[in-house]
Amino acid sequence: WTGRRRLLLALIPLVLALWFALVLAQSRTGLTASTVGVLLALIVGARPSWKWLLVGLSGVALALLVVFVSPLRDWFIFAGANSWQSVIGPRLGIWGQALDGMRDHPIWGMGLGTFGVLARVVYPLVSPASASVIEDAHNLYFQTALDFGALGALLLLLLLVIAGGAALALAQTRPTRSLSRLWAGGLFGALAAHAIYSLTDAVALGTPGGAALWFVFGLIMGATAPLTAYERVGNPLRRWAPVA
User: Fold this and answer.
1) Which of 169, 56, 150, 158 is nearest to 110 (CA)?
2) How far is residue 207's CA from residue 198's CA, in Å, rounded to a whole number?
3) Three-class SS string for the chain?
4) Fewest CB within 10 angstroms: 51, 96, 152, 191, which?
């Protein structure tokens, strides 16, 4: 879309490496979130025609159909167990433990990184001696409420809304078919992918991996700083940048 073919040739191997890693990890939520994030990034940043948009959506639908009607379904979606219970069942138990912990510690949470230990001892699903150790609540929003309380979870949601709105506003102010517009759309798509992935898994904010989310926040809010006075008038979210 930007006409920079050399940049496209450099990015394609990186994209393929990312997808290859996601497939090897059998991260079903990761692949779903990445697909949705890429589509949103292209819609916001590149603004493709309806023809190309339909071609892309048809390609995704065809890939899903192949997975569902082939042996890939048992290997990938069901992870070899051939049951939806293998996909969502274990998480339902963990989410129940998380909700119990949130009810017991609604204001300040139970402390950073302590849910895994307390869930096994205080909210056991089976005998603590036979229970496997879990690292997180498998839902970032639950995990944030457990680590920092309800206020912490609300602040995270507020930051996601502010940063997402700022990325959309940034894309709208950039020239059409420009690299900066596609970049802003990519940041919005990355936030969307992270938000979707966080529904069934968690990269806790206090862990080294959690720094990536703050890095994306910084890129988005930092990019809104050099907007001209004319662009600031049309971007009410700009005033929230210092808060974020």
Assistant:
1) 150
2) 14
3) CCCCHHHHHHHHHHHHHHHHHHHHHCCHHHHHHHHHHHHHHHHHHCCCCHHHHHHHHHHHHHHHHHHHHCCHHHHHHCCCCCCCHHHHHHHHHHHHHHHHHHHHCCCCCCCCCCHHHHHHHCCCCCCCCCCCCCCCCCCHHHHHHHHHHHHHHHHHHHHHHHHHHHHHHHHHHCCCCCHHHHHHHHHHHHHHHHHHHCCCCCCCCCCHHHHHHHHHHHHHHHHCCCCCHHHHHCCHHHHHCCCC
4) 51
Lowest mean pLDDT segment, chosen from 18-32, 79-93, 111-125: 79-93
How far is Cα 22 from Cα 20, in angstroms, rounded to an integer? 5
